[in-house]
Amino acid sequence: MLGTIQLKTERLVLRKHLPEDAAILYRDFGSDEAMYRYSGWNPYASLEMAESTVRNFMEQYTDANFYGWAIEKDGQLIGTIGAYDYDPVRNCIETGMSIARPFWGHGYAGEALGVVLEYLTEKEKIQVVTAWCASDNIGSIKAMEKAGMKLIGKEHCALKICGRTYDKLFYEYRSGH
User: Fold this and answer.
1) pLDDT per residue over 54-69, tens digit each?
2) Which of 21, 92, 118, 141 would bridge with 128, disulfide CB 3.0–4.6 Å?
3) Which domain holds residue 79?
4) What is the percent of the chain where pLDDT is above 90?
5) Residue 2 lies in a domain
6) Which pTM does this prediction carry?
7) Residues 47/31, Cβ–Cβ less than 8 Å
8) In-domain check, residue 1
């Protein structure tokens, strides 16, 4: 396995995180409630947390089973995408992504996810890539479906985030899709 390598699409570059990403992630992700509305998870809530998160990503790049990318459009950081919790027995990994709000609605999430799915299944030979989202998260649903992921299940009222309850949708992408 190669781990995190640079990936490119027609419009995007997926690259390893750099120290200077932390301030941008804090400003564009950590300070915007819409960015964690459906996950409740905000690793960029303060500049210190953002710096720690980026430092952690950078330290893990020596691990061939670590996948964590910054998504750039025209040299500007617009999102993040990663894959984690690799299960060697099932040859399965989970993925997650985030695109800064000014860049929503342009297909960047689906484009980035598509190249990551292709890399993980074709180059890294991972059989199954999974993801989940809240049922109200239309942007994530569209991105996963555009990238070729299939809805495989729903858990009723499984997500309780910031006082709201959502159904949890489960998606997967299989090698040889």
Assistant:
1) 999 999 999 988 999 9
2) 92
3) 7-174
4) 83
5) no
6) 0.94
7) no
8) no
